[in-house]
Protein 1
Amino acid sequence: MARQMTGAKMVVQALKDQGVDTVFGYPGGAVLPIYDEVFQQNDIRHILVRHEQGAVHAAEGYARSTGKPGVVLVTSGPGATNAVTGLTDALLDSIPLVVLTGQVPTFMIGTDGFQEADTVGITRPCTKHNWLVRDTDQLAETLHKAFHVATTGRPGPVLIDIPKDVQFANGEYVTPKSAKIGTYNPKVKGSIESITDLAAAIETAKRPVFYTGGGVINSGVAASQLLRELVQATGFPITSTLMGLGAYPASGKNWLGMLGMHGLYEANMAMHDCDLMINIGARFDDRITGRLDAFSPGSVKAHIDIDPSSINKVIHVDIPIVGDVGHVLEDLLRVWKSRGRKTNKASVSKWWAQIKDWQSINCLDYTPSKKTIKPQYALQRLEELTKKYDRYITTEVGQHQMWAAQYLNFEDPHRWMTSGGLGTMGYGLPASIGVQMAHPDSLVINVAGEASWLMNMQEMGTAMQYRLPVKQFILNNERLGMVRQWQELLHGERYSHSWSESLPDFVKLAEAFGAKGIICNDPADLDDAIMEMINHDGPVIFDCLVEKHENCFPMIPSGKPHNEMLLGDASTKDAIGNTGAVLV
Amino acid sequence: MSPLKIKKGSTSHSAYELRDPNAEIIERHTLACIVDNEAGVLARVIGLFAGRGYNIESLTVSEIDHESHRSRLTVVTTGTPAVIDQIKAQLGRIVPVHEVHDLTVDGPSVERELSLFKVRGTGEKRVESMRLADIFRANVVDSTLESFVFEITGTPEKIDAFSELMRPLGLVEVARTGVAALSRGAG
């Protein structure tokens, strides 16, 4: 049913029709007509952030924790350019977002008008697709198409640039059902021949490993269920990228932990020595592969990915399967079961014995301290004291992020929100706000470093305004820890600009925002302080003063293969004894 | 006290792998894409090549079906086989790109390019340029007492050859359209 309405009204109507309940945004001259419509309705909640980058990260947090697309509304020019980091972050981590930007009126485009920027030009390489709508009659269809493109195939951010005169003008509204979505329909079913090849490989593999990624989570909860079934039925070990944590439960008996540059020793060794690698929804990122020509040299590699460009991009695979993880796993299970559910049990149990040997190294061991809080200890206590809660974790980027991935356990998908591909410092605080909006009664913790946290600290104002009880758990080492670590290990201990002088008093900062501030520097007080944080009904900034010079281990130095991992001081001795391959 | 005994100049000083993993032979491929004729589609394709460091040897684009707003974009590119595969996959990801055909591997194909050559000269050189144009089946589309503009259609190799011959005869300006290509046969 076609209806006449203004472009601004269409925006709000289309969002409602798409089932949107929350929009993160910031008003400005070129979006005032849309904000006027937002004012006159109650179905969609608008969250006023403090900076447009925060709006996009908050929408990412919302999207990752719900599986629904996140929606952002910002103005032209600086509003759009401030959104660019968030768009790029979402593109690299395949997060569905619909970002609406205002634009100067169509007759002013190209005149360098006030707050004019070539938004579609600037965001072309950092969106999955974008549109400049010049005609109100096209607006509704474009909005519906945007949701389709953002959520179909490999998800990603899309942007619609809407000139102010298009918002004011009248046009015909079409509903999602009657809109012509177009021809964008990536295939979801994998080739049965390739799936059968993989089933056959599973039957004979002696040293198999599942290597899973964010694609499993993006595919939906059902895909995680199918993965769990497949892992249990085959008995194969499983590791995951940073992005895929939670798809398989950390308490599962086949779980090896995260792999990659700061992944677990056993996971990386299994990747290096396996004879069958089954990549499910991961993309052979350089943080995962280490040195390419020494990456898992003896294995047959299968790769399930919905994006054909991920296949053979950096690593040549033997069994490529283009399709949605959920659909492919369903077919794989069916084919493998119908062929008699066979695995090479004897060899696989020998493989497990080898893996147990690697696990016995305890690569996450660290030198404990009674005097200072070790960051690893802080996260172990955080895990212990919060694991029973309905808990969501976001992070900033750096050492704390890697420690969080190592020491926190995730039992379910959508519980872990971190900037993986782009590594965006300043992601965690706004993301925690987006998560808390979607899950008002859950415990949402941003594990942060003080340097990252300061990058978007203005969003504490948003948390206060909407009474979002987000917990900012800051591991404060007064350093850019990961930069400092690289400088120590690789640049002759010349600590060029990697420590912060003049840090704020975080407790006073919390109080200035009207939040609660907690400071803790004694391991003996840590548990009580964490409980105080959890039990406070409102936003908390927790300033956890940790050991300043702790390095994050294990670590695969860049340009090294998986079996040349560095282990922490505590376990190095054992590592040499057990495997001569470990580089000291 | 670095636990890493890394030699100077080694790639391990970088957060990235600095070696080229694809040090193989370079191939030349002609790709044809059917795209929506909408604003920015060419920018998307060019941005992809520029952003990911692929080569464009030539690129032509024009609307081929007004009703359905479809354009055909023909791009000649070079790269290792792995890079060519990646280019095709990346083109396929662009939302308004509907089909990507690799005419170089899909079977026999014809490639043609149109060019205009301005040749200035008098006397024997002028006569010689005319004679050679005849051999190449080039047409004269403009002439003055001391110049010709030749129009020539053919494969890029034929046009290269013509260009080489015209140079000593007073070639002053060239305009080439880039390659348009179709697969041979009824399919």
Note: The first strand of chain A starts at residue 3 and ends at 6.
Protein 2
Amino acid sequence: MENLLKLFDAEYKFMSIVWELEPVNSTELTRICEKELGWKKPTTYSMIKKLCERGVMKNEKATVTTLIAREDVQKHETEVFVNRIFGGSIPSFITSFLQDKMLSEEEAQNIKNMIDEVTKK
Amino acid sequence: MTALFITILNMSIAASVVTLAVMIVRIPLKKAPKIFSYVLWGVVLFRLVCPFSIESIFSLMPTSSNAIPQDITYAQNPAIQTGVQFIDAPINTAISNVLPFISTDNSINPINTIFEIAEYVWLFGFVSLLLYATIGYIRLKRRVYYATLVRDNIYETDKIKTPFVLGFIRPKIYMPIGIDPSQHDYILKHEQTHIRRRDYLIKPFAFIVFALHWFNPLMWAAYLLMSKDIEMSCDEAVLRKADEDIRGVYSSSLLNLSANRVSLLSPLAFGESDVKSRIKNVLKFKKTSRVIIVLSMVFVAVFSMGFTMNRIPQINSGGNVPDEIPAAINTTITNDVLSSYIADGGLSRVVLLENNRFYVEGRPEISYTPTGSYEIDGNKLYLNVSENQQFIFSIYGNSLIFESGEWLENWIAKETVFILLEDEQ
């Protein structure tokens, strides 16, 4: 699973378009990618093929759907990031993240609730 | 192919002279904008591709443009003629010491064999370099295949570490992802300047030209220095156009993005080409005064003109005037001159001697002087050099008109008129 969730920048941008629109017709997809990513038709098709081979998406009867969720990729990327930069320590990550930032009363409350959720389990 | 190869060698020699001159001149030009040094390399490029040039007394070239005579592979005593005595003398002595003496006419001239081998080695080197460059280009192109559009011709991808320009017809700028936003604009301006100046065409063209001269180490030095001058003048253009002093930000972007790979045919990459000296150049940048710019312009103009034009060949430089005939042909010409005909102001001549002997000088820079016996039939003059080599002239009063003759046609156009030289009769 690890490998599936590691996406290069172009792959993530492409997947984001598909997540947004799926299920989407592949011809329609090439048209959108040309506008959004500056890709020619063959580029989009070879990207579809590449991601299908990796089992990240599916292309059946010219309809493209994804096989992984955006949240899973985001979670994976965040974990990799926290591990790499903060040695896996969530508090030091949050300290750095909150530096020089003012939170509104509401945002602070939201975060508190989130922490409570996690600690209850 | 021998003719092409000798032309290449001659261009290489001329370009080496110009390269040395540019290297010297770059020192006083250090304070001036680097665009001036960049322009000077244009003269080297010209010398590397163009075997011809205008002859002028204002030429600054110290050497002749045909140091290696085209007929060297046929010459009995192969010799070079740069026109500079202290270069010619030792080299020609070395050539005659190394080459075995040829006694009979029908044996293969050893210098011919040497040239034939050298031609293949040269061709192999050239083709290998082109192949290397093409593969490098294709690999880079593949690497940025999935780069995504930012706007206009700007693309971004996380598969590269340093920004660069790629493409020939519609060049695109490729930026790595995650560049500091404060540096983003200047890096982009740098790459856009490359595109505006057509550097993306000039650099590959220069590479092909320098690859033709791969055997000449001076040309590699020239290529590297030129790449450096291209990048530095581009840095300066960005600094000059900026409203505020961005030297600090700009140098830190150079440092962050310095390309750590060393590649011969690098594209126009932002962090390319000797980052340390580029940072130095950026930090000491200040807008140049008008006086320095005008002076540099004049200087560069004089330099470029002087080294683009060829010097006028000196008629006596080859030593082939009748009263000092080289030893090789002295043995055949022991007779007195009956009449001599000249063309091109004395650069070419046909000399008829007693006992139906003759000799012909194609050009003063050619060491080969055909001789033999002549016959006159009606108004035709036949000069027989060998069984399969005959020069034919028509006689019209006091002049000769060149009709045909395979070797001589290399040097003299058909229907060239040779005039009788009165006082030598």
Note: The longest strand of chain B covers residues 389-396.
